[in-house]
Amino acid sequence: MAYRRELLMWIAVVCALGFVLLAALQGSIPPVPQTAEDDFESIGGPGDLDFELDSDDIPDVYKQAADAKYAPVQFIEYEVQKNDNLWKIAKQFGGNADFWYTLLSVNKLKNANALRVGQKIRIPDQPGILHTVKQGETLEDIALQYDVAMQRIAGANEIHNPSQIIAGADIFVPDARITLKHQRRLEQESNVPLQFIWPARTRRITSRFGYRKHPITRRRTFHKGMDIGCGSGAPIYAAADGVVTFSGRMGGYGKLVVIRHARGFETRYAHNSRLKVRKGQRVKQGQRIANSGSTGRTNGPHLHFELLKNKKVQNPAKFLR
Q1: If you average pLDDT over every residue of the chain, what do you get?
Q2: How much of the chain is helix, strand and coil, in % rounded to 5?
Q3: Residue 22 maps to a domain
Q4: Is residue 90 a contact partner of residue 100, using CB atoms and an 8 Å limit?
Q5: 251 in any annotated domain
Q6: Which of 209, 281, 186, 207 is nearest to 238 (CA)?
């Protein structure tokens, strides 16, 4: 019996020591650290309405924009005057034709080729593009798309933290580099027709589009095109890319070239002395297609230039740049 009591006592001592050792080991184990995700959840996430960035959370790019004092874009309101067009306004305020795309994007015009007298348009004090933020888009995405420093975009729009980049908002991107595809999209959205260059070196108009007294019959007739005063043999150029649909003699037109362009446009070049293209040939804008002359019904050498859209004659002066 004495032996059993001594054995039980030692068992009890061993168990007690075991519990003491276990408690000591638990106390020495450090707490499990929070993961980065747990830490992010503790301050809120992008979908958390209570999440706000304090000054320490704002990325350096926004602070740099403020420190560098990039000038915020300023807009003026301009009232369209008589004989104004978007090209003329672009050159007046932007110094070059590229500013035309700035005006297209900023004003989101439905018909940029038909400005009305008294119509008001917004003009920024610097070239650029108005960009509408897409869902999930960041300032980095926009900067990469237009090849512009993030600080410049933030400064131009007085953006102080990322929470201001909201889907659907318009952001002005200064000195944005836009692709040809983007240019064409702006033109289509603003119902801008193809851009045509002058078909001759001179811009001297001897007879305008519209009703006039015919130089031969002296009767009041409708002049379907524009006469450009260039001497015999002067080079004549394609006003835009297209396909030659006619090259030869055609009644009162004399030696005539007709070019079909995109979007339903057609141009005609009449009274030439020599033709340099053939039917079915593709031509580029500015390519030499003929030499001016006085063939057909005319009282002297010049180029008779016509422009049609969907087979209806248009005033060429409204389309030439």
Answers
A1: 81
A2: 30, 25, 45
A3: no
A4: yes
A5: yes
A6: 281
Q: Is the pTM of this model over 0.90?
A: no
CATH code for the domain in which residue 91 is found: 3.10.350.10
Give the SS3 label for residue 252.
Answer: helix
Question: Are 162 and 216 members of one domain?
Answer: no
Domain CATH for 294: 2.70.70.10
pLDDT in tens, 114-165: 889 999 999 999 999 999 999 999 888 999 999 998 888 988 998 888 788 8
> Helices 86-94 and 99-107: crossing angle, nearest 10°?
110
Write the pLDDT tens digit of every residue in 35-70.
Answer: 433 433 333 333 333 334 444 455 566 666 555 667
Domain containing 227 equals 205-318
Q: 94 or 272: whose pLDDT is higher?
A: 272
The pair of structure tokens assigned to 147 is 């090849």
The per-residue pLDDT for 302 is 94
Cα dihedral value 268, 270, 276, 281, nearest 10: 20
Cross-strand bridge partners of residue 129: 173
Query: Is 185 found in the same domain as 71?
Result: yes
H/E run at residue 42: helix 36-43
Region of residue 125 (phi > 0: left; psi between -120 and 50: alpha; otherwise: beta):
alpha
